[in-house]
Amino acid sequence: MQDVLSLRTLVVKILGLMLSVSSGLALGKEGPTVHIACCWANVCSQWSRRYSTELRRRELLSVAAAAGVSVAFGAPVGGVLFSYEEVSTRFPRATMIRAFFSAVVAALTLAWYDPLGTGKLTLFEVSYQNEPALLEYPLFLAMGCVGGLVGALFVKLNIQISEARKDGSAFREKVPITLEVALIALFTAITSYPSIYTRDLSSLAIHSLFCSCSSPTNGVDRLTLCEGDQEAASASLVAALLLAAAVRFAQVTVTFGTGVPCGLFVPSLYVGACLGRCLGIVAAWGNGYLHFAQRVHPGVYAMVGAASVLGGVCRVTISLVVIMFELTGGTHLILPFMIAVLAAKWVGDLFNDSIYDCCIHLRGYPYLHEPGDVTYSTRACDVMQEELHCLGVEPGPLGVLLKELREAPFKGFPVVKSEDDFSVVGYVKSKPLQKFLEDQLCQNNDDSVPVSFRGRPGAINADFLLDTSVLSVVPDTPVAQVHSIFRHMGGKLVFVTRLGQVVGIITKKHFLHCLSRSLDQEVEGLDVDQKSSEHSSYLQAYCHETSSYGLLSSPEESPDASPEVSPKTNITRASVSFIRHSLPSREFSLENMRQSAVRALKSCPVVATRSQSENPGGRKARHSAIQSISWPAEVNKGSSGRDLRKSGLHLGLPAVIGLLSGMTRCFLIWSISSFLEKLYEEGAALTLSAWEHLRWSLVCVALAVLAARLNWRVPCTASGMSEVKTILNGFVMDERLSFDVLFSRSLGLVFASAARLCLDLQGVMLHLAACWADLCYRLSSINNEATRRELISVACAAGISAAFGTPLGGVLWSYEQMSSKFTQQTLIYAFLASILADLVVDAYAQRFDAVREELQSLGARYDHLPAFVEYVVFVFLGVLGGVLGAACIFYNMLVCRARQNWGWTKWGVWGSISITLVTLCSCAISWFSPLLFRQDDALQALFASCTSRSPLAESFGICSGSVTAMHSEVAWSLCGCALLCWLELAITYDAGTPGGYFISSLLIGGCLGRGTGILVHEFGQWSQVPLPSQPGVYAMVGAAAMLAGITRVHISLVVMMFELTGALQLVVPFMVAIMTANWVGSLLTCSMDECHISLRGYPHLMSESVVFKSRAGDVMDEELDECLTCNACQISVLTKLVNQAEYGGFPVIVSEEDRALVGYVSTESLREYLQQLPVRVTMKTNPMASFQPLDDKTLDLSSLVDRTVIQIVPETRLEQVHQIFLETLGLKLVLVCSFGQLVGMITKKAFVQYLEQGEIGNMTRDPAVILEDHKKGLDEPLLP
Where do the TM regions start and end (predicted)? Predict the structure, then answer.
């Protein structure tokens, strides 16, 4: 679709958007702005060879989409999230970082130009400083449901109108596009004029609807919404707003999709704002009688209603929430936004798809949705194309091959060994091969020269055009796995092989064709091509006879064929390609079921059905007869269909996880507060006498030793994020999430926090939430590893939400930092869990946790964008945060490595001495400054603006009344406190007690940032250059930079920072500093969690910093001595082999002579099967067993064989192997086959070991190991 993003389209789009917006039509400019940004990206990609490949170009388009939303809304963070959630099908971390940078540059450009003249990025700024009452949340939920209904109605009506006026319709033949646009403009003008709410521009009216009557006007026209400083509440006003919403709804319904550039964001916001304001007026009236809130603001309901309707139309979640509070500045309304948007999506999905998905289907664009949107009941063999035009490795003369390439209707050919041996060699594209052969023909002028794909002497060598890295699957592979390959790996085709022989091919376009014909698209009289469906069905294996007629597909089509003579020997070949017909034999396949079921399947054209969540009772649905067959359990093992059909049962688990996480946070806050009050009341003071400090130190030592004793009972230390991250990366570590771990670490965390160590409970909350998720999984009836990891990803979001009160940041942290696979379904579940966790903390722990509210009120006072000269200081803070973060990680690794070598990492005398020394050192450091004694209060003081007269800031000496202390002595004192806290964190983290590094990192950065701000002010006075200086702003930015230098996260940390501080105008400074800190820190070391993963010897597959120069053949295990054959053997021999197995399974091949791959059998399943056999069978008769059916006396073990294992060739690039293991399929191994013969195997654990040992790639290592012998590496784990 090159014309969609061409230079011509760019020019027409810009000019058309200017005219259409100026005309006053009911449309928005935001959607077309994203299209314009993508056009620029496509034009710019043609200037660089780096973006010549399709994959690179699509990554650039994802980056452009983020920049487009950033410019359209002034929402850089929302732009990145919108590109991830709605635009891109593949969004790796590298793309996210580039999108992050692009959005920052776009936002800085917008801030420099300042089109609104306000000095701010927020388009609809409001000033609501208090969170809504708890009893208002049901109203927000109801508003979300209404928004979902309105959005679904809009989608249905707009699609019907668009279908009626599309090209070729009766309406279009009578009414040209120009006349239609003119009529719509006339209709809009006539219907908009009577009402004051529809007469003005939509953006101005939206701002009026959002504003509070008690706040300053700031140039906003209040219309008739206010009566003085009180909101108007009359029935006539409600009727006028409802009428305005109905008029604008009708206008946008007929306008969107017409022949002008138009978007629907602003009209949707307008309709929702009117409806929400009406609900707010009714709620304010009801509050006068019921008194369920201190005060009800109708403007808040208008903002929630706007988000609801837009969510109901577009069905986006997390990105819309971020865009809404970046648009409005309403950081206190994050939770209402999340509830309303989630409800709108759920309600809207009950009726139809989003407007974008419906438009894609209406226009016939090929698009592959998330695998979770479809419940599959078939396998690869049901959708593959069997009539294959193949080329041999010696295809023949140049002239014949060139002629066939020119006439070929398809884009490429599978290349096999020969016409008799269909072992896969690779795939060659038609156009590059045709161009190469034409060039050779021009040079040689001889069309009889043979062509070869294996470099035969005397032939034209075309092997460099051969793509040998095409993935292969077997006929039994679930279609859900094929879907994942196409969507996440960006592949265009896969081969279907059986015993090394190609039997079919699945192209992405053909897969979409099958999917679109089988899904219910709500089109009346949907016509399914029965003949085409039967032709590509796997049932051909049972009823279609094998034939080979050269290029002719049937004997009737062969003019030279006769019954007496084989057509294969009599037809004179006019072509070098040959057809591979249907499968010759399926007798050993798992699909050899009852013939009655096969006959029932033969007439069924459906290959997939909607899942239950996507197919309510009111919609049409076609159900495949394949669901009625009793397929073996091993067939359904790899398919997501069985689990998705039960997804409704799993919906309660994320809610339970969120509630438990919130309750755990409340318990910890209550217990720690009570503990501190009972132990030493003097500890609440900011200064202690020498005797009080000594007594306090002894109590801290006792508590720290007790915390370490509890923590050493379980195989986890520090924050536990390293263990959770490794589990989510695909490795089994069940003992790290047991109930014993949950109990010991919770109790140990209470003692460690009471000991006043330089650690926090926020980091451990994520681990505790993951333990709750694993416990819920074990208590439920679910038995699926993928679902378990999905629940753990949900728990990570809930844990961060409960720890910091940042529900949105929790979801993003789980996606960016923890999970290796994060689907749209996981996103929704994480959304729900984080909302409930935050609600529980708000409801029950508010009086114990006042720090967060105070931080938000402090950040909200910084209501202007910083000056451009200040961004130099922000970059400096980013560099400083990156360097100090890397140094902290480096020295912490040295200390931890020393503890490991000296044996101080387990309970005992030396372990107790180690904890005692660390605690005494921490107490001694806290003696030097009151800032280090109470870190939460210190953060409040550092972030404070002295004009607000903060008592804490005055007590710490940071402020003097309403005047900021701008003395260099204060700055150097703050820098000294930062260095002491840095030293304390380096020696305390992972010393043996549970605890995280979040608050300490924020404190270090806050001290450095505020000190830098004071020094900048001093420099401005000395140089007589007026430099703006707000030390509180620098403190917040410095805190974010320091935490980024340790964690190496991007967008989630930005969101967490302005959720914590409420400083929405500091989004761009946060992004600049965090991005700089990440870049600088990554040049020096890996992140804290990744270094501790390496230190403990955990297997973990990194997602970045890898440069592959090798192929699968360079790293595969070639010594496959432990292969099983299909030949019969005695049970005793098989049992002995299983007991001595070193691997987790065995490849199964045909025989020792024929190493054609049959499948893979896991050691655990084989052992369980053998243990269940009666003793009299195994000890007395010792029968024979085989992995294929032989006779009645031989045990049939074929049901244990997994035939869906992924196969690759030795030439497959390691980037593809890395992607298979990391983010696509969640597999544990891949088998390497050459010409159908098994030649090697790559397990995920072995692949990780190759990366850590540096034998391939270029990965950042554990920095402490650099000082040791290179050969030792990380072979000795820290924990048993």
Answer: 7-27, 60-84, 96-113, 133-155, 175-196, 232-250, 262-285, 300-325, 790-815, 827-845, 871-895, 907-928, 970-989, 996-1020, 1032-1051, 1063-1084
Q: What is the 3-state secondary structure (H, E, C) of 586-630?
A: CCCCCCCCCHHHHHHHHCCCCCEEECHHHCCCCCCCCCCHHHHCC
Q: Which element (helix H / strand E) includes 548?
A: none
Label residues 999-1015 b or e (16+ Cβ within 10 Å = b).
bbbbbbbbbbbbbbbbb
Question: Concatenated DSSP letters for 372-408?
Answer: GGEEE--BHHHH-B--EEEEESS-EEHHHHHHHHHH-
H/E stretch holding 1196 reads strand 1194-1196
CA dihedral 1233, 1238, 1243, 1247 (to 10 degrees): -50
Residue 210: how many other CB atoms lie within 10 Å: 27
Distance (Å, whole) CA 590 – CA 583: 14
Long-range contacts, 194-199 (Cβ 8 Å, 24+): 195/240, 195/243, 195/244, 195/247, 196/223, 196/224, 197/223, 197/240, 197/241, 197/244, 197/274, 198/244, 198/247, 198/248
160, 399, 445, 450 from 396: Cα distances, Å: 54, 9, 16, 5
DSSP type of residue 428: E
Picking from 804, 884, 876, 864, the residue whose alpha carbon sits closest to that of residue 1033 is 864
Closest-CA residue to 100 (of 892, 840, 1052, 1036):
1052
Nearest to 471 by CA among 1148, 1213, 1101: 1213
Asked if residue 211 lies in contact with residue 220, where contact means CB atoms within 8 angstroms, the answer is: yes
For residue 133, what are the contacts with CB-CB under 8 A and spacing of at least 6? 292, 293, 294
What angle do helix axes 298-314 and 318-328 make, rounded to 10 degrees?
140
Structure-derived torsion over alpha carbons of residues 291, 295, 299, 300, reported in degrees to the nearest 10: -80
Q: What burial class does residue 753 get, using C-beta atoms within 10 Å of its C-beta: 0-12 exposed, 13-18 middle, 19+ buried? A: buried
Q: Work out the average pLDDT over 1153-1175.
A: 80
| Confidence band of 1263 (pLDDT split at 50, 70, 90) | very low
Would you give the DSSP letter of residue 259?
Answer: S
Q: Are 1266 and 1116 in contact (CB under 8 A)?
A: no
Q: Count other Cβ atoms within 10 Å, centred on residue 551.
A: 15
Residue 770 CA to residue 67 CA, distance in Å, equals: 35
Q: Which H or E run includes 1029?
A: none
How is the chain split among helix, strand and coil, in percent rounded to 5?
60, 10, 35
Distance CA(729)–CA(1098), nearest Å, equals 11
> Cα-flanking dihedrals φ and ψ of residue 227, to 5°?
-125, 85
Radius of gyration of the chain (CA): 33
Q: pTM of the full predicted structure?
A: 0.77
Structure token digits, residue 1153: 């002579």
Q: How confident is the model at residue 23 (pLDDT cuts 50, 70, 90)?
A: confident
Smallest CA-to-CA distance from 983 within 928, 941, 910 is with 928
Would you state the structure tokens that stand for residue 419, as one six-digit string?
């016409």
Whether 352 shows a pLDDT value over 60: the answer reads yes
Please list the alpha-helical segments (H only) found in 680-779: 690-711, 721-728, 739-754, 762-779
pLDDT, tens digit (0-9, with 9 covering 90-100), for 967-979: 788 888 889 889 9
- Crossing angle between the packed helical segments 1088-1096 and 870-902, to the nearest 10 degrees: 20
Query: How far separated are the first and last CA of the chain, in Å rounded?
Result: 56
DSSP letter at 506?
E
Residue pLDDT, tens place only, 147-161: 999 999 999 999 999
The rounded distance, in Å, linking the Cα atoms of 978 and 938 is: 12
CB 842 within 8 A of CB 134: yes
Residue 523 has a pLDDT of 31
Among candidate residues 474, 351, 372, the one with its CA nearest the CA of residue 424: 474
